[in-house]
């Protein structure tokens, strides 16, 4: 999974897998303007560019003006690490069964962490916690994690001083506790994606193929990596531990390389096994340019690129500034695209105000390019610089 390459220092760069060949469909449309835009440095586009051209359905398609782009003067980045920006957190969510027979997803939204956990733990303010859990083989694992993962994090001795260590330990301990609960079906499993926010710091933890994407002035910045068995690093880890990847499935059974639960595929507690419950972490420091966070299960990302989701979410928030309605529209769009899975989306806004209009430098050449196409072009130009 790719994150942008032109990040301010607080961002950790993730490896990319997009192909320049996918940009050929845009080439004629933007060739006249490429020279004018080469002075601008932006991040790389997301993966799956082949579906980006269809990122907005007919009833939500927007021009650059619709998206809040004003063709006048440029804006300067304010993410210099010295900002006094303090996020105001609010969230909304939407979950739908979709075409599946049963709903196995769970999610959690805590906008005020201090109020939620009480005065027993002194934590920075503002503080918040969000989670998306994509279950499989039943609902027990996803439900258990939704109810308990935050408790395991807060009870860690490292919390909140060493939040990274606390979160990583909590994932593994929650997995073991699930295995010890005789009232539950421990062969059920779940992926887990969480976001812990303290002041300006966002700590994303991911085990599985849910995804967290930051909306940064219209650009998509991925804060997690999908753990698919075919992913090069995951495949090496799996095979080193005696597992196999067959037709994209771990041991021919599971379409993710990391998950909690699924104890029929794991060895004794504490032993290394191909299916890991340990999350990958990424920490990000927010700036004024960071507008919202989208957390979603793979039912969303199977039919929508990260950039597409950010473009659509930004347009929605500019119109009504309601994160819950925004999450609902993303789910609705994924259903229109015939997703084959359950759908869960959480949208977290970092300001009480809607996203502002983005100003782009004046060009002498009259152009007709979508807002998303422009973001993709910026990423390609940046990768060539």
From TrEMBL:
Gene Ontology, cellular component aspect: cytoplasm; nucleus
One BP annotation, GO: response to water deprivation
Cofactors: Mg(2+); Mn(2+)
Gene3D superfamilies, per database record: PPM-type phosphatase domain (3.60.40.10)
EC number annotated for this UniProt entry: 3.1.3.16
Catalytic function, reaction form: O-phospho-L-seryl-[protein] + H2O = L-seryl-[protein] + phosphate; O-phospho-L-threonyl-[protein] + H2O = L-threonyl-[protein] + phosphate
Domain PPM-type phosphatase: 90-350
SMART domains: PP2C_SIG (SM00331), PP2Cc (SM00332)
Keyword annotations: Hydrolase, Magnesium, Manganese, Metal-binding, Protein phosphatase
GO MF assignments: metal ion binding; protein serine/threonine phosphatase activity
Similarity comment: family membership: Belongs to the PP2C family.
Protein name according to UniProt: protein-serine/threonine phosphatase
Native source species: Actinidia chinensis var. chinensis
Lineage of source species: Eukaryota, Viridiplantae, Streptophyta, Embryophyta, Tracheophyta
